[in-house]
Write a structure and sequence with these properties.
Length: about 850
RNA sequence: GCGGGUAUGGCGGAAUUGGCAGACGCGCCGGACUUAGAAUCCGGUGUCUCACGACGUGAAGGUUCAAGUCCUUUUACCCGCACCA
């Protein structure tokens, strides 16, 4: 009986024979199959890990048997907040808890029996890895892609520390639930915005889920519009605004500048100074929780200054308001209350003017009443007209369509040097500083004389000290280590202080796919020639939650490495799949508090890892996931036993040889080859559930044969041949079980060194085929036709059927549609 | 608010891409084996109807010889972004 003992037996043998070994000689057939590595925060592997790694291992083994040289590495994303928070709570050092977790997880991963290349393991918190993470930082710095800037960051006034975005839950601190505010701090950024256009256009060529591409597209947020320059009245100052609706330019009645904008103090008049300063202070203190609130009422104040409309030369008041974001576009907007809802709302509140310049485009006379509907007077108590249309009240631009006007107005602005076409992105630069202990130190020192000095490559890694007070008290933990902070300037040799922030863990995981194939390289981050042969990753599988974070960062870093001449690869992950989420039996997300957590270990112990893996593959559509079912596991256990019984029965039959195949033999060969064809197609698309359904069909056909064909008529030789092939077919799905069956059939170790069976098309062809015949679209009877029959012959056979007469009473045949090897439809009336 | 996705028996889920809806499995019903049960093996199982047959893929229309699949409208739930000018 298949059980955990059998798992252990074959795992041992696989390890001894190093079955997962990657043969570099065979690089021409390489297949880089990658699963997102584990985050060792919890002590154990959960169902989610299994659901990612188990089925993908099935896929990888299938690829191996197809003749590919499979590279399937595994590692640990070991830096990060949970380990540190755990340390704060328990006093156990993050290094110790992380290493202990990794040890447990490695053991569990081995019990899974996946074909991982453990030789290539990477652990991001180890010096030999983070040395190169730091090196990468220096490379970005060298290329002007890492820079320091004052940033408005999340601040918890109770913990007295900066929080990462992920630590802010609905505007509250994840640890103490205090209301989070904003604070200006100098932080390190990566200039991902330099790559915005390529990150966007590169999506086209990727074999990724459309949804994921859409998320990245929205995240990058390209928007095409115009830039318009407004001069400040009685001053030589001017400022730019970005707009996608320059066709409404003639409707501008005021302009708004973000409160943080540098021009604000320069244009604020004496009489407005007090009010403006108070407003700016208020904005700084605004709580994150309030900022996130829906339908927040807009506020703002007048600066006292006026801007000059670039075309009409009209005076328009300059306001500041926090509905204008300093971080998007130019931080200034032109306000057209008649045609923008936000401006409309603001203008109504502060009694600012409206000017309508767009009316709906008329389609025929009957809609002319629309003209009245959008009359200026009514706009005030209704809402803005934000659709495109025809220009009015716009002087030389009257009667143009919105699209024509955008073109003409921008060109006009360009000619008088007051504007141009402009593309803007929503994507912001990547803030990589973390005021945390458990991460890779940022390799930079601050010298009194030389300023910011990068740590020279020869001094890497900047080691993360072990003995540090990591409990939060308002300072970065590393800042409290005198030994760490105080150093000498690599440039002038004078006194200097180290950067005490660490890198966001997403930096560590943004390049690991390059390190796996060359993980022991102590000279370089990786060998370029070798990496260019191994990359890109052919199949990448992991959860969809990383769509806009990890997957975007990894693409960005890849392009940076390429531009630095370290690789020729532009996209790291050619093909991407997201597995679904396994929910608790109650249909809710698994959580300790709900008490609905399923522990893989219990099932592996009871049924063996193959049964557990098979259930995960069969019970759900892979990309959907769904609720856990206890019956599902037991039924899978029963199926594996049933499969074992028939394989053992066939093996025990006495040999006989029949020279000719009977109808039963041919039927069996048909089912086997037809199902095999489907299994191969399903595996290619990671449709594990339907592939296993077909394995069950083969199993059922074998039972049927043994039960229905008289013993002396059974073709045992054929049965055994099919059984042996069948073991090969199932081996990627049930690796331990298949290896055991393989040995029972006296086949030489290992089944994974054999080729996956090939469909024998000759057994799929039969002399006749059955076709359904519809009358007016409803199936009424079936006909048997020679498989060689053409449309005319099929039609003839279909029309000869006596059942048709019943339907033809008082009716005549109007049309006959014959779709070869599909269907016949007889239209009567 | 914007963008994306999903909806199929009692349940998990299929459907060669417009061609026999419900593969495969669970559950349920029946039979065989058994002193008995468990296990196992075999058969049945969308709904309504005694049956002929009719109806049936969230809802309502439409295109087509033919629609779960395409088009229009709509509802519910899930996910992403959210004052992005």
């Amino acid at each position: 009986m298949y059980n955990k003992k059998i798992d252990e037996k074959w795992q041992k043998k696989w390890e001894e024979t190093n079955i997962a070994k990657f043969n570099k000689e065979n690089i021409g057939k390489k297949y880089y199959c990658l699963e997102m590595f584990s985050y060792p925060s919890g002590a154990k592997l959960h169902v989610g890990h299994w659901y990612n790694y188990g089925p993908v291992d099935t896929f990888a083994r299938f690829k191996k048997m197809q003749g590919f040289e499979v590279f399937q590495p595994m590692g640990f994303d070991a830096f990060g907040l949970p380990a540190e928070n755990y340390a704060i709570k328990t006093g156990i050092h993050p290094y110790d808890s992380t290493m202990k977790n990794i040890e447990t997880m490695e053991k569990q991963l081995k019990e899974m029996g996946a074909m991982f290349n453990w030789d290539s393991e990477v652990i991001t918190c180890k010096e030999d890895y983070y040395k190169w993470t730091q090196w990468l930082f220096l490379k970005l710095y060298e290329r002007g892609l890492a820079y320091r800037k004052k940033a408005n960051v999340n601040w918890c006034p109770s913990c007295n520390t900066v929080l990462a975005n992920e630590q802010v839950i609905d505007g509250l601190c994840e640890r103490c639930s205090s209301v989070v505010t904003k604070k200006d701090l100098t932080q390190w950024f990566f200039k991902i915005t330099d790559y915005a256009e390529e990150l966007l256009s590169g999506l086209d060529e990727l074999d990724w889920p459309e949804k994921t591409k859409k998320i990245q597209t929205n995240w990058i947020g390209k928007s095409t519009g115009s830039i318009v320059t407004f001069d400040v009245e009685n001053s030589d100052l001017s400022f730019d605004v970005f707009t996608t609706r320059v066709d409404t330019l003639m409707g501008v009645t005021y302009v708004v500048v973000a409160p943080e904008h540098e021009i604000v103090p320069k244009i604020t008049t004496k009489s407005c100074e007090k009010e403006v300063n108070e407003y700016i202070e208020k904005c700084k203190l605004i709580k994150e929780i309030d900022r996130l609130a829906e339908n927040r009422e807009k506020t703002g104040v007048f600066t006292g200054s006026y801007a000059i409309h670039p075309i009409t030369k009209a005076r328009v008041p300059i306001w500041i308001a926090d509905y204008v974001l300093a971080t998007y576009g130019t931080g200034c907007v032109m306000a057209v209350p008649a045609h923008d809802e936000r401006d409309f709302e603001f203008a109504k509140k502060y009694k600012l003017n409206l000017k309508q310049v767009i009316i709906p485009k008329m389609i025929g006379e009957e809609k002319s009443d629309l003209k009245d509907k959008f009359k200026f007077e009514e706009l005030l108590d209704k809402k803005a007209y934000t659709e495109k249309g025809i220009l009015i009240n716009s002087g030389e631009f009257d009667s143009l369509t919105s699209e024509e006007a955008k073109e003409k107005i921008t060109k006009k602005l360009k000619s008088i040097n007051k504007g141009d076409f402009k593309v803007t992105y929503r994507l912001r630069d990547w803030l990589v500083s973390r005021q945390r202990y458990w991460g890779a130190p940022i390799p930079v020192v601050y010298c009194e004389k030389c300023g910011v000095v990068p740590v020279p490559e020869k001094d890497l890694p900047v080691k993360l000290p072990y003995n540090v007070e990591f409990k939060p008290d308002g300072k970065s933990p590393l800042a409290k280590s005198e030994e760490f902070v105080n150093t000498v300037c690599p440039h002038c040799g004078g006194k200097a202080k180290r950067e005490t922030d660490t890198l966001d863990t997403f930096v560590c995981s943004s390049w690991y796919q390059f390190r796996y194939p060359d993980n022991k390289n102590s000279e370089k981050i990786f060998d370029t020639d070798w990496i260019d042969k191994m990359l890109p990753v052919d199949k990448y599988v992991g959860g969809p939650e990383h769509a806009a974070m990890h997957l975007l960062y990894a693409r960005f870093i890849t392009k940076v490495l390429r531009d630095a001449g370290l690789t020729k690869v532009s996209e790291p992950f050619k093909s991407l799949v997201h597995q679904g989420l396994i929910l608790g039996p109650d249909g809710n997300k698994m959580s300790k508090s709900k008490g609905n957590v399923i522990s893989p270990d219990d099932y592996v112990e009871k049924y063996g890892s193959d049964v557990f893996r098979m259930y995960l593959m069969f019970g759900f559509s892979y990309v959907e996931g769904g609720p856990w079912s206890e019956e599902g596991v037991t039924s899978m256990s029963k199926f594996v036993s049933r499969l074992q019984r028939i394989l053992e029965t066939i093996n025990s039959l006495g040999n006989n040889e029949k020279t000719e195949y009977t109808k039963s033999d041919k039927d069996l060969l048909y089912v086997f080859n037809f199902s095999l064809k489907g299994i191969i197609a399903d595996l290619e698309q990671m449709q594990f559930n339907t592939a296993i359904a077909k394995i069950m069909e083969i199993t059922n056909a074998l039972y049927k044969y043994v039960a229905n064909v008289k013993e002396q008529e059974q073709n045992v030789k054929l049965l055994k041949e099919i059984a042996i092939k069948f073991i090969q077919v199932i081996s990627p799905f049930m690796p331990h079980f298949a290896e055991e069956m393989w040995s029972i059939y006296n086949m030489p170790f290992s089944v994974f060194n054999t080729s996956y069976p090939i469909v024998e098309e000759k057994y799929l062809i039969s002399d006749t085929i059955e076709l359904a015949v519809q009358v007016n679209g409803v199936v009424r009877y079936k006909i048997i036709v020679p498989s060689s029959a053409d449309e005319t012959e099929i039609e003839k056979i279909a029309l000869e059927h006596e059942r048709l007469k019943d339907y033809l009473v008082n009716k005549t045949i109007k049309k006959v549609i014959v779709v070869k090897s599909r269907i016949v439809n007889i239209v009567i009336g």
